[in-house]
Design a protein that fits this description.
The complex is a heterodimer of chains A (1039) and B (108). The longest helix of chain A is centred in the middle third of the chain and has 35 residues, at 404-438. Chain A starts with a helix and ends with a strand. Chain A contains 44 helices and 20 strands. By secondary structure, chain A is of the alpha/beta class. In chain A, a hairpin with a 4-residue loop joins strand 17 and strand 18 (1010-1015). In chain A, helix 8 (161-169) packs across helix 18. In chain B, the strands form two sheets. Chain B has a four-stranded antiparallel β-sheet with strand order 2-5-1-6. Chain B has a two-stranded antiparallel sheet with strand order 3-4. The longest helix of chain B has 17 residues, at 72-88. Classes of the chains: A alpha/beta (1039), B alpha+beta (108).
């Protein structure tokens, strides 16, 4: 009797909740920068980092030695650092005969390691004794009960059971289990990379895996399921429940236990978690697999392995291990010391010996000896560290004269300080960066111009745009703006020749409109194609192309049909014959009329009917006339009751006809209700005139561009190009969901150039003159080239200015490359623009280049305000710049849009870089050199490892040292303080990010000439002047 | 006039954050619930403070309510299923007695 439904649902919900701290992993085809601690964002930053670091066994801050290097380089504000230390000392409330603040500052800035040591046995009294040169006092070791409790807490409750066994008995069950699970995942989740497919994947991950799992697993399952039902029908929830009960894990501990299990391979867990939550992921629909399946596979394998390796030799259930620790604390302690790799080196041999012989008496004796030796060693080390610090401050005497209690206070404070120092360094580094940002800003309103600029250019807020914008502004009369890379228009894009949709917008959004690409060019070279392929090929090249390709039919017909009846493999073969160069295309951005939509659905139906007749009745396409097809269609749709022409032609009897019509209706979906569905789907194509007007208005207003339109208004999306780079999508536009921004630019340009749209905009107060033309373009961030597109649509009047525009863009590109290339050279040297341009081009094409560009590394700032505010500053490609003019946004709606979309994306990017820098091994993905692509969606290190998450070493590190400076995003909003604050409070996500300290927020009020900084939840104010200094943020703001 | 048959059922009103919508509907589907209605963009107050109903860009950050009419025997399993979720997240479930006329839509 399988467990009741309630129990199964409970297990499912527990795993859902347990999986929340594990970050999503998006397939790398569209790499998404995200915060690896996204699941902890509801907590304050410091706490979240602490918990996340513990869960993922990672570091949340840089090692002190690297912070000291930043200090030496002048990147850390010493004043803020010392103030932070003194604030800490105040909180501690310790009273010592010397200045604890001075002591801690010396500790912090002069030594690469904290002076506080881990004292597991020794205590303050022992340290005191060593300092006094006295013997350690006798301490009866009868605190066995306390020892047992500490052991249980540290060892048993923090990790899955096999890890406990590994830690106590030196086995390698954990890594064996991981290997098997990784293999299972690679086999099941493969997306076309391997040649041999796992059979029966459509039954779901758990069932498919069970089919091919070894004898041992099946035997374990049979034993488990005895009395509960047939093993063949076992569902994952049941199996999980049975295994955990078998392993005697306490019920209340299941959720944390699941989290610990998932955290072991958090890359795979994150991928599965993402995959099962996406509604339209093709592979998930075909081969479903969620975290419950994954947990069932893991736990069943764990039980199998534990039984195989441990049964009869060592305890392996929760209760048995708990019992061991409680009743044999000495043995458990020694085991943990030895196999847990924290043994005192000089006694390792003796421990190994005693554990092998398992002689109780010897164990107890060795325990005593070990403990006292370790106690001496710990006390000695701690005393030495303290003496060193004291010596450097000239306080050696005072240290020795401290009383026991005072020494205990010092040690406690040092220990607490060690946990705190990461935050102090971070805040001090950020203070220096804030200082750097605030100096030299221009608060004055822009001077009125007599002549409009030659061109206005809208760039993505991406940090790489900062350089090119600065250089473009310097070569001519250009005005630049920053806007989210998708230009505020979320589209789902269906590329020519492809059948699947691409969401070109931040992953936070779901686009409601579909844009398709069409060509008017003629048929391509068909020499190499077979007859079947030819038919498909012709379908492809007609004007109705997007609706009729095989996979597009998938769009309109549901995916099972594609797989079963229309031979996708053929399609794939044929696709590879396609020429490299795409024909000129144009985008369908307008809504289709009812008749157009109707005729499209009809065309698709006709194509399918032709296919059906071919496949079911074996007729050649040439034998099927249009009249026959029409008859069949009407018959299947129920509009006609017979099809005499068709019947006569194929020679089927009535029954046969009926059967075929039935097939048409069911398998090929030629029926009324499905046609209705298709009409709805086709209706998704394009934007209504209202929508177009709204999007254009919103885009222009959000950046404050509502008048003074130039002849050319460039919409410049960005993308990158590199070879042999699984991370290529990470270098593309995050706002476009990991694709390049050209399509969005083309869509908005098309909308904004439409006369009807401009007519409506005029009614809304945005008057775009007739001679202003929007031109889409693509900025290649690897080569810095800017290429203009859709020039065929340019009005003739603009052609004569094209040269000037092109030459300006070219100069800007070369200057930008010149600025940027030295950072990519092994040794910095000055390059002339031509050489730099060549170097950049080579980076884009060299498949051995592990660092085609630095991407978003060194990002630090997010500025929301007018360009003139920052125009005179060189921000070295470190700032996200979003244009914004509060004067045209009285209701704060536009600011809220910027906060909720672009700023959140910026924060994700920033946090991804932060954690990949502070711990590239655990949060980042290590060196690219060892990466192997897995399943076509991720990378592993070596031939079998967890899916690597985060950014590779080459992106954030330079020769082992951090290239990216790990800091939280320093956000500056230019607006009256009230205005900005209300907007922030109005967006729940951002309010939470600010309140919990995930971003550092500043508001600069041009009307009051003041800057406000949000510091630990409080707002502090300072007048803006030339002498602005981050230390002068004292006055509190009134909210 | 056709004679109307009234059948008693239980109504569940499940209020939770919008980002958990697919989890909740998946759970209901697995419990065997035949259909449900979703009300979007709610605001309200709970032990964690006031929740703003704000659509804007982010469609996930709003409160939603899922209404399902279920036979009595499904109430306990469904609540059992949601228990671990509500241990960690804000929201509530209300259970009330209702009647429906077309029982076939709600029960096999």
């Amino acid at each position: 009797m399988s467990p009741p439904i309630g129990e199964k649902l409970r297990v499912r919900a527990m795993i859902y909740v347990a999986g929340e701290p594990i970050p999503f992993f998006w397939p790398m085809r569209s790499f998404i920068h995200h915060n690896p601690l996204h699941g902890f964002e509801h907590l304050p930053f410091e706490e979240a980092v602490d918990r996340g670091a513990r869960l993922f066994h990672a570091r949340g801050f840089l090692p002190r030695s690297l912070y000291r290097r930043y200090l030496d380089d002048g990147q850390v504000d010493r004043g803020t650092l010392e103030r932070g230390v003194r604030r800490f000392v105040e909180e501690q409330g310790a009273s010592l005969p010397f200045d604890l603040g001075d002591w801690l500052v010396a500790d912090l800035t002069r030594y690469d390691r904290a002076s506080a040591e881990d004292l597991t046995i020794a205590d303050a009294q022992d340290v005191h004794a060593v300092l006094a040169g006295a013997e350690l006092r006798e301490r009866p070791d009868t605190e066995l009960r306390a020892l047992a409790e500490r052991l249980a807490q540290a060892v048993l409750w923090q990790r899955p059971l096999y890890e406990v066994v590994d830690r106590l008995y030196g086995t390698a069950i954990g890594s064996e289990l991981d290997e098997q699970v990784i293999r299972a995942c690679l086999d099941f989740f493969d997306e076309g990379q391997s040649v041999w497919e796992m059979p029966k994947r459509d039954r779901g991950f758990f069932r498919a895996w069970l089919d091919v799992a070894g004898r041992d697993v099946r035997r374990t399952l049979d034993e488990l399921m005895r009395g509960e039902g047939s093993a063949a029908d076992a569902d994952p929830e049941t199996v999980i429940g049975l295994v955990l009960r078998e392993l005697e894990v306490p019920d209340a501990h299941w959720v944390p236990y699941f989290t610990q299990e998932l955290a072991r391979l958090h890359g795979w867990a994150g991928f599965i978690r993402w995959r099962s939550s996406t509604s339209h992921y093709y592979w998930e629909q075909r081969f479903p697999g969620d975290l419950v399946d994954y947990m069932a596979v893991r736990t069943l394998l764990a039980l199998t392995l534990l039984r195989k390796r441990a049964k009869g030799r060592m305890p392996f259930t929760f209760a048995a291990l708990s019992e061991l620790i409680e009743s044999q604390p000495v043995e458990a302690y020694l085991r943990n010391e030895f196999h847990g790799a924290q043994v005192l080196p000089e006694m390792a041999r003796a421990l190994e010996d005693v554990l092998m012989r398992r002689n109780r008496g010897r164990m107890n004796r060795l325990f005593g000896a070990y403990r006292s030796r370790k106690r001496e060693w710990e006390a000695g080390r701690q005393a030495a560290r303290l003496s060193a610090v004291a010596g450097s401050l000239g306080l050696s005497d005072q240290l020795r004269r401290l009383s026991r209690d005072e020494l205990a206070t010092l040690l406690a404070a040092s220990g607490a300080f060690r946990n705190r120092e990461g935050m102090l360094w971070l805040e001090a580094m950020e203070a220096q960066a804030i200082d750097g940002l605030l100096r030299g800003l221009d608060l004055a309103p822009a001077a009125p111009r007599d002549k409009r600029p030659f061109a206005k250019a809208l760039f993505c807020i991406d940090t790489r745009s900062e350089r090119i914008r600065r250089n473009l502004e310097s070569v001519g009369d250009y005005q630049t703006y920053g806007i989210a890379g998708f230009f505020g228009v979320p589209v789902s894009f269906m590329e020519l020749g492809k059948g699947s949709e691409n969401h070109l917008c931040p992953v936070l959004l779901t686009p409601k409109n579909l844009v398709v690409e069409m060509t008017s060019a003629g048929a391509q070279d068909t020499a190499a194609l077979s007859a079947l392929e030819k038919a498909m090929h012709e379908l492809k090249e007609s004007v109705l192309t997007p609706f009729v390709t095989v996979e597009a039919i998938g769009l309109l017909f549901g995916l099972d049909m594609v797989g079963k009846t229309l031979l996708p493999t053929t399609y794939n073969h044929w696709r590879r014959h396609l020429h490299e160069s795409k024909p000129d295309t144009h985008l369908v951005v307008d809504k289709l009329g009812r008749e157009q939509a109707d005729s499209i659905v009809r065309a698709v139906q006709r194509a399918v009917i032709v296919k059906a007749v071919e496949q079911e009745l074996g007729r050649e396409p040439e034998q099927i006339t249009d009249a026959m097809v029409r008859e069949l269609r009407e018959r299947a749709m129920g509009n006609q009751s017979s099809c005499p022409g068709f019947a006569a032609s194929v020679g089927l009897d009535d029954a046969g006809i009926e059967r075929f019509i039935g097939r048409l209706r069911d398998a090929y979906r030629i029926n009324q209700s499905f046609a209705q569905l298709q009409l709805e789907r086709v209706g998704r194509i394009g934007f209504s005139l209202d929508e177009q007007t709204r999007f254009v208005a919103q885009a222009l207003q959000s950046i404050g561009l509502t008048e003074d339109f130039s002849r050319f208004i460039l919409l410049i999306g960005h993308g990158s190009s590199s070879e042999n780079n699984p991370y290529e999508s990470a270098l593309d536009c995050g706002a476009c969901g990991g694709s390049h921004g050209l399509v969005s630019a083309r869509v908005l340009a098309q909308m904004a150039n439409k006369p009807e749209v401009r007519h409506r905009l005029r009614a809304n107060g945005i008057d775009i003159p007739d001679d202003a033309w929007f031109v889409p373009a693509l900025h290649n961030t690897t080569t810095d080239e800017i290429r203009l597109h859709d020039l065929a649509l340019l009005p003739p009047s603009h052609l004569m200015y094209l040269d000037r525009l092109r030459s300006g863009l070219n100069s800007a590109s070369r200057l930008c490359a010149q600025e940027r290339l030295p950072t990519l050279e092994p040794r910095p040297r000055v390059l002339d623009p031509a050489a730099a341009a060549r170097g950049a081009l080579r980076n884009a094409m060299d498949w051995s280049q592990v660092r085609p560009e630095w991407g978003l590394s060194r990002n630090a700032y997010f500025v929301i305000g007018r360009r003139s505010l920052t125009q005179s500053k060189a921000l070295d490609g470190r700032a996200f710049l979003h244009s914004y003019d509060y004067r045209v946004d009285p209701k704060r709606r536009l600011l809220e849009n910027i906060l909720t979309g672009p700023l959140v994306v910026g924060q994700w990017i920033n946090m991804e870089h932060y954690f990949s820098t502070v711990d590239n091994v655990r949060f980042g993905s290590g060196s690219k050199v060892y990466h192997n692509v897995a399943g076509r969606f991720g990378v592993m290190t070596g031939n079998l490892s967890d899916l690597r998450t985060g950014l590779p070493a080459q992106t954030v590190l330079d020769g082992g040292a951090p290239y990216h400076q790990p800091m939280r995003l320093i956000t500056l909003i230019e607006a009256p303080f009230d205005h900005a604050l209300k907007a922030v409070e109005g967006v729940v996500t951002v309010k939470r990010l600010v309140r919990n300290g995930w971003i550092r927020l500043l508001v600069i009020d041009p009307e009051a000439s003041a800057v406000c900084l949000c510091d630990n939840g409080e707002w502090r104010r300072q007048t803006y002047s030339d002498g602005i200094d981050v230390s002068m943020f004292q006055e509190l703001c009134s909210a | 006039m056709k004679h109307l048959n009234f059948s008693p059922l239980k109504k569940l009103e499940i209020i939770l954050g919008g980002e958990h919508r697919s989890f909740a509907t998946d759970l209901l589907d697995r419990a065997g619930v035949k259909g449900y209605t979703i009300v979007n963009n709610l605001s309200g107050k709970g032990s964690h403070g006031f929740h703003e109903g704000h659509l804007m860009f982010n469609e996930d950050d709003v409160l939603i309510m899922i209404i399902a009419a279920v036979p009595e025997e499904l109430v306990k399993p469904i609540l059992q299923g949601f228990a671990p979720f509500y241990n960690q997240h804000s929201g509530v479930v209300f259970i009330s007695d209702i009647q429906v006329t077309r029982l076939v839509k709600f029960r096999d």
